[in-house]
Design goal:
8-stranded parallel barrel, two-stranded antiparallel sheet, alpha/beta, TIM Barrel
């Protein structure tokens, strides 16, 4: 069995697998629970310790709680809130607190490791109400690390605030701006938000972040190499256009491996999450990551190619 690298997650006190699991693919009604149970436990058996989900991912939170709660001490649970709680207006303090409580119930745990405000608009972040509500959940021991997931101006606002111990954003071969902006600044920022070191207990709150944890989403850029022609109207169309424009030489490496190794070993990225529900796909991803960082000259080629062709290529939400 291959061993996935385990990394310190910024200055949060958490450790996370360099390759994490995105939980969106396991939330659909087309999946049988038996299939999901086998997949999730196989992922943990194979060394995946960071599992990322969200309120919006169908049955994902419920299934993770149902099938992995007995392995709670083996995993880092990351989820997202801000919307979709009956009786609460989206993006209000009460919605954040109720969302955290609902995630605790569904995930069958008494604390959550990482909770993101999920693509919260910049103007709402600036008002401060939802940020303070999430920090309140840290103070009461329901959440270990307050986090933000999003892109562009809103992400910049979140990083500049210094109130989040983790960020999640797009990082891949076709989406590199965050490496020079939000990710870089988060690694340099002196944060002063509270974090609990050991879940819902009476341990003293710590407030000495040196830098934030960083989760890279979409490391495979929706696999643009799947399409021989422009996939018009497809979710991955913009990434396909960028990939074609960059016209990079993969130096004999398969595309999936090239994309994964680029993102997983990008500077200041602690974990890159891939959404899948297929065990063989998961094992292929692990094998790619275990080939280690790309050669320095190839990584530099990929960085310079993006910079050369970047025509206002903003982060894709």
């Amino acid at each position: 069995m291959l061993s996935i690298p385990q990394r310190s997650f910024g200055s949060t006190g958490l450790k996370a697998s360099a390759l994490g699991l995105g939980g969106g693919e396991i939330g659909g009604n087309d999946l049988d629970d038996t299939e999901v149970e086998k997949f999730l436990n196989t992922a943990v058996d194979e060394g995946i310790t960071l599992i990322d989900t969200a309120r919006a991912y169908g049955k994902s939170e419920e299934r993770i709680g149902k099938f992995l709660s007995h392995r709670r001490n083996e995993i880092v649970l990351s989820t997202k809130v801000g919307y979709g709680i009956p009786g609460h207006q989206d993006w209000t303090a009460s919605c954040i607190i109720a969302g955290v409580d609902e995630a605790l119930r569904l995930l069958r745990t008494d604390y959550l490791d990482i909770v993101h405000l999920h693509s919260c608009p910049k103007e709402i972040l600036q008002r401060g109400e939802v940020v303070e509500a999430l920090l309140q959940c840290v103070e009461t021991g329901k959440v270990r690390v307050a986090a933000y997931s999003g892109e562009n101006e809103a992400l910049d606002e979140a990083v500049a605030s210094g109130k989040f111990g983790s960020i999640q954003c797009s990082v891949n071969l076709c989406d590199q701006r965050n490496l020079d902006n939000a990710v870089k600044r988060a690694s340099e920022k002196g944060f002063g938000v509270p974090v609990r070191r050991s879940g819902n207990d009476n341990s003293e709150l710590k407030d000495t972040f040196r830098h934030a944890g960083v989760i890279a989403k979409r490391p495979a850029a929706n696999a643009p190499w799947r399409f021989s022609e422009q996939p018009r109207g497809h979710y991955g169309e913009q990434y396909w256009l960028r990939w074609k424009a960059m016209n990079v030489d993969p130096h004999g490496i398969e595309w999936d491996e090239l994309f994964l190794r680029f993102a997983v070993f990008a500077p200041e990225v602690h974990s890159a999450i891939v959404g899948t529900r297929n065990i063989e796909h998961l094992r292929r991803n692990i094998a790619c990551v275990n080939n280690g960082p790309l050669p320095d000259d190839l990584a530099a080629h990929l960085r310079s190619s993006f910079q050369k062709h970047d025509e206002g290529w903003m982060g894709l939400v």
